[in-house]
Automatic annotation (TrEMBL):
Protein name: Site-specific DNA-methyltransferase
PROSITE patterns found in the cross-reference section: N6_MTASE (PS00092)
Ranges for domain DNA methylase N-4/N-6: 81-375
EC number: 2.1.1.-
Protein species of origin: Deinococcus antarcticus
């Protein structure tokens, strides 16, 4: 049994069974794309409504696997997400065309495995992952999650009554529920208690005007015989009372005497009850109740409720499989607090973001479909304006406020020209190139605002930095750069070409691009969605070597291939 390549040894894993399927050993080499903001699609309230308004929410348009890879290579997001809710395709057959069940199942598992590993990396140590599914794949996904996240981190399989009608038109057994698998990142996760309902509070009464307030009576007998706990008690009427035959008291004699002295045993209105109860005071119990794994539609809403919510927002049925806001509300009540970051990488109609926004949480949503523009953006605009008063709005007193920023995935960094040469994408400018190289090399993209630190474009620690340039660096330039960096800092320099004599400077590490990045990812692939042709294929090792050595075979130029590669990247001199 081995850990996933992305997991390494970052935390102890359980011994576990592993699923096997066609294509499992084929892994994509994902390109960590940068995100490009489109200010024209950003949206925020005209004024701040409360001091807790959230404005730094993110809507990302693009393939969700590439988007997750982008987020997982961003130090500002990796390990910062408190709660992830996803509602992936259920693999009912409707998501695929013309393929047999085996291929559907394998493709679905490969699709989920890649995403789960990245989702796991994004969670805080006290975070949790919630996955909505039906019976088609939930049991396989449970084993897959055990393999990736750890069996010890499985918390619950919540059964949600997704349909509030009997389904009498079913030809077999009507399926009226869905599942929500719940995993924690680590033992640091602590679920919030749920507030007591009016019905639950009504169970606490005070018939004897106890100054300690309302209480709930709990039995003092147990359904088994223990000789130590079989003894008589005297009620207020002076009669001795024994536990029923075959049973005993729940407390030893000394504890029972203590409860009597504290007035915590109730013998009924007249003091002559046959069996007393122990008082559990509302003021002394937990501030809420522990959640349970059965969520009837009164708690989590139903698909019919969700459709009605969509109709209220868009005026007609606008989405095939929305989730009700009550379901997400319940999840976020348990798993998060105001200000926490929530992520949904299968955003769909935007319910997760809408609920998170109304609850004062920060959110990140990812969606590739055009409904990111036709559904999510107008929906979130109504939430922000306060005109969306459906769903949970009344329950949380939502009045509007906050905003979000719109991002799209940048195109691939490296493309092939008409002659098959790998070149920097003409759409990239110098700043985009620097940010992309930071992601590829594991640096945070943090350009210095100081002119004196013009070479600081990325940072991996307080003393280690990265600089990207497309111009030729001669010895004198490298000497000047080394002096500016100083002996207390180190700098990785990704450079088009440089004087080999410059390698003598101890505080500079020089690497030529593109050679230093070509092998790090598969380029110019934008679609990792549910299509058979997107099932990952392992690249032959010799193919990677050929790519890395291509420049060496073009000996007629001083820096073979680089002029073509950087022809469109611009010069940052």
């Amino acid at each position: 049994m081995t850990d996933s390549p992305r997991q390494g040894t970052k935390r102890q894993r359980d011994l576990k069974l592993e699923l096997t399927w066609v294509g499992k050993d084929h892994r994509p080499r994902l390109e960590p794309r940068i995100l490009l903001e489109d200010p024209e699609k950003n949206y925020h309230a005209a004024a701040r409504v409360t001091d807790t308004d959230q404005f730094e929410n993110m809507l990302i348009f693009g393939d969700n696997l590439l988007a997750l890879q982008s987020l997982a290579t961003d130090p500002k997001v990796k390990g910062k997400v408190k709660c992830i809710f996803i509602d992936p395709p259920y693999n009912t057959g409707s998501a695929f065309e013309h393929y047999d069940d085996g291929m559907e199942h394998s493709l679905w598992l490969s699709m989920m495995r890649e995403r789960l590993e990245l989702l796991d990396e994004l969670l805080t140590e006290d975070g949790s992952l919630w996955i909505s599914l039906d019976d088609n794949e939930v049991h396989y996904l449970k084993v897959l999650c055990d393999e990736i996240i750890g069996r010890r981190n499985f918390l619950a399989n919540i059964v949600w009554q997704s349909k509030d009608t009997p389904g009498n038109n079913s030809s077999g057994i009507a399926q009226t529920h869905n599942h929500v698998l719940v995993y924690r990142k680590s033992e640091k996760f602590t679920p919030n208690l749920l507030g007591r309902t009016e019905d639950q509070l009504s169970n606490y009464k005070n018939p004897d005007d106890d100054p300690r307030g309302p209480w709930l009576g709990t039995p003092l007998t147990r359904a088994e015989f223990r000789e130590r706990d079989y003894y008589p008690l005297k009620n207020r009427a002076g009669r001795q009372v024994y536990p029923p035959k075959g049973s005993s008291w729940r407390r030893p004699r000394s504890k029972m005497d203590e409860l009597e002295q504290e007035g915590r045993i109730y013998w009924g209105k007249n003091g002559d009850a046959e069996f007393p109860v122990e008082k559990k005071y509302l003021s002394e119990v937990k501030s809420g109740v522990v959640n349970q794994t059965w969520w009837p539609y009164e708690i989590g809403g139903s698909t019919r409720n969700a459709s009605a919510e969509m109709k209220g927002i868009f005026g007609a049925k606008a989405f095939d499989t929305p989730k009700p806001e009550k379901l997400i509300h319940r999840i976020l009540e348990i798993a998060t607090n105001p200000g926490d970051i929530i992520l949904d990488s299968f955003a769909g109609s935007g319910t997760t973001g809408a609920v998170a926004h109304k609850m004062g949480r920060r959110w990140i949503m990812v969606e590739l479909g055009e409904h990111a523009h036709t559904h999510i953006i107008p929906r979130m605009q109504k939430v922000i304006d306060g005109t969306d008063q459906g769903g949970i709005s009344q329950a949380v007193g939502w009045k509007g406020g906050g905003g979000f920023r719109y991002f799209k995935l940048a195109p691939t960094l490296i493309k092939k020209d008409k002659r098959g040469n790998e070149i920097i994408n003409p759409e990239y400018n110098a700043e985009m190139l620097a940010e992309a190289c930071c992601k590829l090399k594991g640096f945070a993209f943090e350009p210095s605002a100081s002119r004196e630190l013009w070479w600081q474009q990325g940072r991996s620690s307080e003393r280690d930095f990265l600089f990207v340039t497309t111009r030729y660096m001669d010895y004198a330039s490298l000497q000047d750069l080394s002096e500016e960096v100083g002996p207390e800092r180190t700098l990785l320099v990704l450079v088009k070409a440089y004087d080999r004599e410059g390698e003598v400077f101890d505080n500079l590490t020089l690497e030529k691009i593109p050679e230093s990045v070509l092998h790090l990812a598969e380029w110019d692939k934008d679609d990792y969605s549910l299509k058979v042709e997107n099932l990952p294929k392992a690249a032959p090792e010799k193919e990677l070597v050929t790519t890395a050595q291509r420049a060496e075979r073009r000996g007629s130029r001083k820096m073979a291939g680089v002029p073509d590669l950087f022809a469109a990247a611009g010069d940052d001199s």
